[in-house]
Amino acid sequence: MIEAAKDLLKRHWPALRLRTILLIVLLGVAAMPVAGMVVLRVYENTLVRQTEVELVSQGAALAAAASALWPGAAPPASPPNKARPGYYAPERTSIDLSASRALPSRPPAVFTATPADPDALAALPALRPIIDETTRTTLASVVVLDRNGRVVLGLGEGRSQRGLPEVAAALAGQPRTVMRRQSDYRQRYAFEWLSRASGIRLHHARPIVVNGKVVGVLLLSRSPRALFAGLYEDRGKFLIGLGGLVVILILLSGLVSRGITRPIVALSRASREVAAGQGDIPGTPQTAATEIRQLYEDFRAMAEAIARRSRYLRDFAAAVSHEFKTPLAGIGGAVELLQDHGESMNPEERARFLANISADNARLTQLVTRLLDMARADMARPGSGVAADVDDAVCRVVDALGGTTLTIEPRLPAGLPPVAVPREAIETVLTVLLENSRQAGARKAVLTAVVDAETVILTVADDGPGVAEADRDRLFEPFFTSHRADGGTGLGLPIARSLLAASNGRVSLVASPSGARFEVVLPLG
Predict the structure, then answer these.
(1) Of 77, 204, 329, 393, which cross-links 426 as Cys (Cβ 3.0–4.6 Å)?
(2) 448 bridge partner residues
(3) Distance between CA 373 and CA 355 in Å, rounded?
(4) What is the spatial distance between Cα 412 and Cα 398, in angstroms, rounded to a whole number?
(5) How many other C-beta atoms lie within 10 A of the C-beta of residue 5?
(6) Cα separation of 70 and 218, whole Å?
(7) 3-state DSSP call for residue 368?
(8) What sections of 441-520 are H helices per DSSP?
(9) This prediction's pTM
C-alpha cells in the first residue's frame, strides 16, 4: 500500500524549480516566529477582551438588580416584547491592547462636601448581599456611587470619584471601559515581562438607570487573566499546535530532502561508480527539482558521450597501432638486412632497400600529418559571425585541382547565400571528396547546390565506379580505405566530417544510379 501511494505520488508530483522549493522553505521558516508572535498577541488580546466581556456582563446584571431594588423604581407595566426589532442590544468590546491607551492607575477618591444620596443609601442593604455573592465568584472589585459620584459602597467610601472619565461617561448615561496601570503590580512569573497585559487592570463604569434617569454608577475593576497562566490552562491546545508545527517542519525537511538532497547524493554516488567503471546511470527521480532533473539528464548524456568517446579512442588507438605497424616493420626489416648483409649487397639491392625505407618513412610522415589534421578538426569549434561565400570556395578548389586527370564542372545557381562554415573548411571537404573521386578512377565530377530554408546542400557527383555496398557503412571510419596502395590513409573523410560537425554541418553518401554521390549540408550564415 505504501509503495502504491509512493508510485501515485511520483506520477502526480509537480515539477518544482529549486528556487521555488527554497522559497517555500524559507517562507515557512520565516513565518514560524511571526506566526508564534501573532498567535500569542492575539491570544493575549482575547484574554483581555474576555475579561472586559465578563465585567460588562457582571455590571449589566448588577445594574439591572439595582434598578429593580432602587427606591421609587416603578414596576414594569407589562412583559417586554422580545420579538420586536432592536430589543437585543449586545455591547461590543472596546479594549484592544495594540490600539487602546493605558491610563495611569486610578487615583484615590477626593473629599466632597456633598452628602450621600438618601435613595442610594436606602438601596444598599438589598444590593450589598448580591454584590458580595458575585464578587466571591468573579473576584472583581465593585464600587457603588450615587448620582453625584460619591462612593457609597466600596473603596473610598464617603469620597468622590466623579473626576474619572469612565465615571463621568456613566453619569451621562453611557457605559465605558478603560484600561489602567496597576500601581501595586508585582511580577509573579519568570517570563511575565513578555506580556503586554502585565500590570494592566480593566475598569468598567455602568450607569444605574431608574425611571429613565441615572441615579447611580457601578464601578467594576478586574485584572485580566495572565498570559502565562492562560497558556498553562490551555496547554493541551498549545501542545497540539506545537505538534502541528513539528509536523510542518518534518514535511518541509522531507520536501528539501526529496527535491534536493537525496537526488544530489544519489547522483554523486552514481558519478563515483561510473568513474570506477561500475554501476549504471540512475534514472531521473520524478520528485526532484526541475534543475536537478536536468542535471540527471545532462549527466546521462555526458556519461554516454564519454562511453562513446572511450570506445572511439580504443578503436582509434588500435587502428593507429595497426597502420603504424606495417611501415615500421618494413623499415625495421630493411635496416636489419642492411646491417647484416649490407657489405655483400650490390648497389642495386642496397638502393632497393633504401627506397623501401624512404617509402615507408613517407607513409609514416603522411599518417602523422593526417593524424594532426584530424586532431585539429576534432578540436575545431564553431565561430561566431561566420559568413563564407560558397562560390568563392568552389572556384578556389576548381583552380587548385584543375590540372589533374579529373574534370570538375561546377553548376551552382547564381546568388547563393553565405554559409556559417569557414571557407577553409569548405575547401578542405571539397578537396577530400574530389581527390577520392580521382583515386577511384573517375574522369568527371559535377558540383551542384540547392538552397532550402536553413541550409545550402552542396552535391559532389562523379562518374567513377562508385562505392561498394559492403563499404558504405565503414566509409567514414578512420583508416578505412580501399586505395591503400595508392597512398590512401583512410583519414580524409573522417577529417571532412569533423570539420563540418564543428560548424553544425554534415557530409553523407547518398544513393546514385552511377558513380559516387556525396551531399554536403552547410547551415546558412
Answers:
(1) 393
(2) 411, 459
(3) 27
(4) 13
(5) 9
(6) 13
(7) helix
(8) 492-501
(9) 0.47
Helical packing angle, 423-440 and 492-501, nearest 10°? 150
Helices and strands, counts by H and E, the chain:
12, 11
Nearest-angstrom CA–CA distance, 434 and 411: 15
Element (H, E) at 246: helix 235-256
- From 419, 363, 362, select the one nearest 394 (Cα to Cα): 419
H or E element in which residue 322 lies? helix 290-341
- Spell out the domains of the chain, with CATH numbers in brackets: 11-72+94-233 (3.30.450.20), 290-363 (1.10.287), 380-523 (3.30.565.10)
The grid cell for 3 is 509503495
Beta bridge partners of 208: 216
Exposure string of 459-472, with b = 16+ CB inside 10 Å and e = fewer, is: bbbbbbebbeeeee
Please report which helix (H) or strand (E) contains residue 281, including its range: none
Residue identified by cell 561546377 is 410
Which residues on adjacent β-strands are paired with residue 520? 458, 507
pLDDT (tens, 9 = 90+) of the chain, 525 residues, equals: 788 877 777 777 777 766 667 667 767 776 776 566 556 667 778 888 898 999 999 999 999 999 999 998 887 666 777 777 777 878 888 888 878 888 999 999 999 888 999 999 999 999 999 999 999 988 899 999 999 999 999 988 999 999 999 999 999 999 999 999 887 777 666 556 667 777 888 999 999 999 889 999 999 999 887 666 656 666 787 788 778 877 877 777 777 777 777 788 777 887 877 777 776 777 777 777 777 788 888 888 887 777 777 766 665 666 566 556 667 777 787 777 777 777 777 888 777 778 777 776 776 776 666 666 556 555 556 665 677 888 888 888 888 776 667 888 888 888 888 888 888 888 888 887 888 888 888 888 888 888 887 888 888 888 888 877 767 767 767 666 655 555 555 666 777 777 777 778 888 888 888 888 888 888 887
CA 457 to chain centre: 45
What are the Cα distances from residue 88, in Å, to 83, 84, 210, 211?
9, 9, 19, 20
**How big is the chain, counted in residues?**
525
Alpha-carbon span 131 to 65, nearest angstrom: 10
Residue 5: phi and psi, rounded to 5, are -65, -40
CB-based contact 456:417 (threshold 8 Å): yes
Among the listed residues 275, 285, 407, the one whose alpha carbon sits nearest the alpha carbon of residue 6: 285
